[in-house]
Design goal:
heterodimer, A: 273 residues, alpha/beta, Diaminopimelate Epimerase, Chain A, domain 1, 5 strands, elongated, B: 193 residues
Chain lengths: 273, 193
C-alpha cells in the first residue's frame, strides 16, 4: 500500500509518463512521415504528354502535341505490343553543363511512360540567350520494348530532317510539329502496321497562323454551368463538378498518367545545329 | 482478477506477440526474396545487353565498308571478346568478357577513326550511333544491378534482417559489377556532330 503522502507524486509521474509516451508516438509518426517524403524530382504536368517547363512553346504547339499523343495512346492501348505513350518535355537550363544534371532514363522511369514499356520521351533543352530562349539539345529515351522498333539511326535521321533542318531555321513550331508527325508515322506504320499516316505541313502552317486558344478549362465550364443554373447551393456546385468529372475525358483538366513503362538508357542525345 | 481470466489474458498476449512475430518474419522473408530476385533480374539484363553488344560487334565489322582491310588489327581483340563471352559461366568471367568487348570496341573505333575512307561511309554513322546506345544501355544495366546489390547487401547486414537472412539461408552479400582491365577506358565520342 502506498502511503497517502506519496499518492499526488505518483499521479504526477503517471501524468508526465503518459504525456511523454504521447510525445514519443507523435514524434515517431512525424519522423516516419518526413522520412517517407520523396526527393524533389521533375514531375509531369497534368497533361502528361506535353510538359512545357521552359515555357517555350505556343498554345498551338502544345495543343497539337497533346491531341496527337492522346490519340496515339487511345488508338494503340491494348493492341499488339501495347499502347505507345509519346511525351514531349521542354526544360530551361542556365548553362549547357546543367543539361547533364538531368537523367533521361530516370525521368522516363519516374513517369512510367508507355504500356508494356512502349514509350518515347523527348526532352528539349532550352537556354536563355540574351532574353531569347534557344533550343540547345534534344534527348530521346525509348522504352525497353520500343528499342526493337526505333533504332538510334532512325532517331538521328528523324531529328536531322526536322528539328535540325535548315528549312525551319526560324520556324521552331513547324520544326517541332514536323518532328512529331515523323515520329507518329514511324510508330503507326512501322509498329502498328498502319498503311500510312498522312499529314500536310502547309496545312499545319495555316493552322498555326489562325490558331485561337480554345479556353475550355474547368473553371470556364463550371462558370457556364453555374450561370445557367437558378440554384447556387453547394449541392448544385457538387453535382456540377460530378457531371464535369464524368465527362472529363475530353476536357483539358483530365489528368493523364504513365502506363507503367520503364526504360534502360536507349535513345539519343542530339545537339541543335 | 480471477486466476482463469489472468491466464487467458497472458495467453492472449503471448498469442498476439507470436502472430506479430510471424507476420514480421513473413514480410521480412518476402522482402529478402524480392530483393534477391531483383538482383537476378538485373543480372539477366546485363547478360542480355552483353549478348546484344557481342552480336553487334560482328555485324558492324562486316557491314562497314573498308573495315575488312583493317580487320586483322582488330580481329584478335574481337575474337578474344567473343570467346570470353561465350565461355563465361561465372560473374567474374562475364565481367572479364564485358571488359574484353569494351577493349574490342576501343580498337574498332581507333581503326575507324584513323581511316577517313571508312568514316566517310554512312555505315560509320550507324556504327557510332549503335555504339553510343549500346554503351549507354549497358551502363544503365550495370548501374541498376549495382544499386540492387547495394540495397540487398545493406539490408541483410542490418538488424534484425541479419538474423532472418542467416535463418533462411540467404546469401550474405553479392558482388558488385566492377568493370576493370581498361574496359572503362572506352574513348568518349562526340556523337552530336
Amino acid at each position: 500500500m502506498v502511503p497517502m503522502k506519496y499518492q499526488p507524486l505518483i499521479l504526477m509521474t503517471r501524468k508526465y509518463l503518459t504525456q511523454s509516451i504521447y510525445l514519443i508516438v507523435i514524434s515517431f509518426f512525424l519522423i516516419t512521415l518526413f522520412a517517407c517524403q520523396k526527393d524533389e524530382t521533375l514531375n509531369p504536368t497534368k497533361e502528361f504528354y506535353v510538359n512545357d517547363f521552359a515555357d517555350a512553346w505556343s498554345p498551338a504547339t502544345k495543343n497539337t502535341i497533346l491531341g496527337e499523343s492522346e490519340r496515339l495512346f487511345d488508338e494503340t492501348e491494348g493492341i499488339g505490343e501495347g499502347g505507345t505513350q509519346l511525351v514531349f518535355t521542354s526544360i530551361l537550363v542556365e548553362n549547357i553543363e546543367d543539361i547533364r544534371t538531368y537523367d533521361k532514363t530516370e525521368i522516363y522511369r519516374d513517369w512510367e511512360i508507355g504500356e508494356n514499356d512502349m514509350g518515347i520521351l523527348v526532352l528539349f533543352f532550352y537556354q536563355n540567350d540574351e532574353s531569347i530562349q534557344t533550343l540547345k539539345e534534344i534527348q530521346i529515351e525509348v522504352g525497353y520494348r520500343m528499342e526493337q522498333f526505333i533504332t538510334p539511326g532512325k532517331l538521328i535521321a528523324l531529328t536531322d530532317n526536322t528539328i535540325n533542318n535548315p528549312v525551319y531555321r526560324d520556324q521552331e513550331p513547324m520544326a517541332i510539329a514536323h518532328f512529331l508527325y515523323e515520329i507518329l508515322t514511324l510508330i503507326y506504320v512501322d509498329i502498328y502496321d498502319y498503311e500510312s499516316f498522312n499529314y500536310d505541313m502547309d496545312q499545319y502552317q495555316i493552322y498555326l497562323e489562325t490558331y485561337e486558344e480554345n479556353d475550355d478549362t474547368l473553371l470556364t465550364i463550371l462558370f457556364a454551368l453555374l450561370i445557367s443554373s437558378d440554384n447556387d447551393s453547394w449541392l448544385t456546385i457538387l453535382i456540377t463538378i460530378g457531371i464535369v468529372a464524368l465527362l472529363g475525358g475530353s476536357f483539358s483538366f483530365a489528368r493523364h498518367k504513365g502506363a507503367g513503362g520503364s526504360s534502360g538508357g536507349a535513345g539519343i542525345f542530339r545537339r541543335k545545329k | 482478477m480471477p486466476a482463469k481470466l489472468r491466464s487467458i489474458t497472458i495467453l492472449g498476449i503471448i498469442g498476439l506477440i507470436l502472430i506479430l512475430v510471424a507476420i514480421f518474419m513473413i514480410t521480412t522473408y518476402n522482402g529478402l526474396v524480392n530483393m534477391d530476385e531483383d538482383i537476378h533480374g538485373k543480372y539477366s539484363q546485363i547478360e542480355n545487353r552483353l549478348q546484344e553488344r557481342s552480336d553487334k560487334i560482328n555485324q558492324i565489322v562486316f557491314s562497314v565498308d573498308g573495315l575488312q582491310e583493317h580487320a586483322e588489327s582488330i580481329y584478335n581483340a574481337i575474337t578474344s571478346a567473343r570467346m570470353a563471352y561465350q565461355s563465361a559461366d561465372t560473374m567474374e568471367e562475364l565481367i572479364a568478357a564485358d571488359a574484353a568487348q569494351a577493349i574490342a570496341f576501343t580498337n574498332l573505333l581507333a581503326v575507324v577513326e584513323d581511316n577517313p575512307n571508312i568514316t566517310a561511309t554512312s555505315a560509320y554513322n550507324e556504327l557510332i550511333y549503335e555504339i553510343s546506345m549500346m554503351e549507354s544501355t549497358l551502363s544503365v544495366a550495370r548501374r541498376d544491378y549495382n544499386l540492387a546489390v547495394q540495397d540487398y547487401n545493406a539490408s541483410v547486414r542490418k538488424f534484425p534482417r541479419v538474423f532472418f537472412a542467416n535463418l533462411f539461408g540467404f546469401d550474405k552479400s553479392y558482388d558488385y559489377w566492377k568493370i576493370n582491365d581498361g574496359a572503362d577506358e572506352v574513348p568518349t565520342i562526340d556523337f552530336n556532330d
